[in-house]
Amino acid sequence: MVKIISPVTQRQVEAEQIDFEAKTEPWSTYELTDGTTLKVRVILTGVLRIEGEYDQSGNPLRRLEPDRDPSKRAEKDPWNANRRGHATDPAVRRRA
Q1: Which of 22, 25, 73, 94 is 20–30 Å from 67 (CA)?
Q2: Mean pLDDT per 10-residue run, the chain (96 residues)?
């Protein structure tokens, strides 16, 4: 069990880490209004089931812990314009 802040009550609650196996981790492509095309992939790094809290249908609340594709992660400064995955990166294509 770990302690987290509940997204519902904003109080500290216990949550259980749930094991999982990735079946697929697809890429998503987004076209921005400025013509930039972004390709991103979200990788799930953890799932927590929040003890004693449920959604409107009675299902236990879960918190997903995502991470971007590690190949696109900034090395040091997440706002550095020279990092991989930024609009200046050749991997992020701009329509002519």
Answers
A1: 94
A2: 89 93 88 86 90 91 80 44 48 44
Q: Is 32 left (phi over 0), alpha (psi -120 to 50) or beta?
A: beta
**For the chain, how many structural domains are there in total?**
1
Domain that holds residue 6: 2-94
Q: What is the pTM of this model?
A: 0.58
Neighbours of 14 (CB within 10 A): 14
Q: How many other β-carbons are positioned within 10 Å of the β-carbon of residue 22?
A: 7
Rg of the Cα atoms in the chain: 18
